[in-house]
Amino acid sequence: MPLSSLPLDSARVRAxxxxxxxPSLAGQAxxxxxxxxxxSRQVLDRLEGYYRRTKVQPYGVFPASIVASEAMDxxxxxxxxxxxxxxxxxxxxxxxxxxxxxxxQAFGAWLKPGDVIIVTNQDHEANTGTWRRLADRGIIxxxxxxDPQTGHLDLVDLDALLDKDVKLIAxxxxxxxxxxxNPVADIAARAKAVGALTIIDGVSYAPHGLPxxxxxxxxxYFFSAYKVYGPHQGVxxxxxxxxxxxxxxxxxxxxxxPRYRLTPAGPDHAQIAACAGIADYLEAVAGLxxxxxxGENPFRRAHTAMRAQEIALATPLLNYLANKNSVRLIGPKxxxxxxxxxxxxxxxxxxxxxxxLARHGIMAGAGHFYSxxxxxxLGIAPDHGVLxxxxxxxxxxxxxxxxxxxxxxxxx
Length: 412
Fold this sequence. Notes:
Elements: H1 10-14, E1 29-31, H2 41-53, H3 63-83, E2 90-93, H4 96-110, E3 116-120, H5 129-132, E4 140-144, H6 155-159, E5 166-172, H7 184-193, E6 197-201, H8 213-216, E7 220-224, E8 234-238, H9 240-245, H10 258-261, H11 269-274, H12 276-288, H13 298-322, E9 328-329, E10 341-345, H14 350-358, E11 362-367, H15 372-377, E12 386-390, H16 397-410
Parallel strand pairs: 1-11, 3-4, 3-5, 5-6, 6-7
Antiparallel strand pairs: 2-8, 7-8, 9-10, 10-12, 11-12
């Protein structure tokens, strides 16, 4: 694949990541990006600067504290800008799993016995187990089930579950195993039609471009910053009027402080400040994109460029896998319909193959990836697991070739 055919120059993109200059990683092609991406220089600079200059308690009256507060506030503003919402949408907690756990407690006190929530069996456990536990409080849980062969979630099946009693739909933007990009705007529209809310797990989608939440029409969207070139934090966007209605989960005296009500465990201040670097990096990507890439602002332009880059990179890999009889590919064969999170079932456990791929300089993942229910629905033993090859726009054509060569050597 010639570099000139890509909307992003890989070398210029990779110049934003110190990891690619790290001698210990030389020759190692990173294909476990769905588990956590490399961190951009923009994020690292903000993180180090905070620790060096403003590692004090923020929101005080002395200069260093004031600067620390401003750095944290900027992160909320920049995340909101990237999502096309106002800053009062943004909440930052220690992780996505912790954030959804707190949301579950809040909704558990807000919903009434007999109310219905819809979950899927395509999700990571963080966005399904939390809601299923509400059955202990008298909430009725309905499951939107995947196709047992493909892992696809069909909107027709969702329609069959909807009625006036449904108050909440929890679904993934895309699965961390199936990879198919779900029609979130359509899910949100269906929810609104019956007076229900939508909570969308964007953890596996956000690394490929932060979405415009106004266009999606969702009520809650969350992602893990460490998978989007940032620090180990969980970022939630919650419609402000909904956040104000949910019961306070923090200290009682912080009830009037929106940022504290749904993130009771205050995450690291420096990492909050560093989240602004995610937006900085996305703007840098927009600046590197081919002039033919369009978008109404840098964040939409970056999103378009990243997706186009990933589709081009995924095409030869998916074509190769389509011709391997020993491989059961999970999810769509068309790279435009999926994130570049490509999972496959092999005759032997995924971990065994991942171990051998490491000898070829391929860093791949294997296992159930906290999607236990999904694997069971697909007829895959969670202990056997899948081999997962996941990458982002910073992957190079040469690394795709390296991966295909390694697979050819190791797959039966």
